[in-house]
Give the backbone structure.
Amino acid sequence: MGFEVIESSVLKVCKVPIQELAGFADHYYLAENANLYNSVGWGSSGLELRGLVRIIPQELERIERFMSVAKYSIAVNNCEHFANYVLHGINLSSQQHTWWKCLGAEVISLLQPVQGRRDNRNSFMSQQIAEVLNENLRQAKIERANRERFEFWKARGITVQ
């Protein structure tokens, strides 16, 4: 899970209806294909990174900039603002211009706790650190299992390569 920096942009803005609100609001994200498996988005908990996202340096820089200055807000820093900013450099949301989307946004703003600017970076960094530590633990377990296997066969007079 993470970012792979590439030379040419492959991302597009995608959206899915928010099921809890019966289509009164949509969740926007960036992905190569219209699925959430390899995508990056923005929500009340900050950055939503799923799988491996192929991204150009300018898009990665915009993500970092957005995370460092924006606190999630359904009205001014929502998922659509994020997706449009990262991809096009424009902080824009069309959801705010229809009465039913505004109603959905109001409901969401009452139900969702939001994360502050500092929490955005801390949450993302904590996630990245946890992934590195988990990978290190996995590698250590593999090394230990291999060592125990070698010792088992060595004790029986068999050399394993």
In short: The radius of gyration is 21 Å.
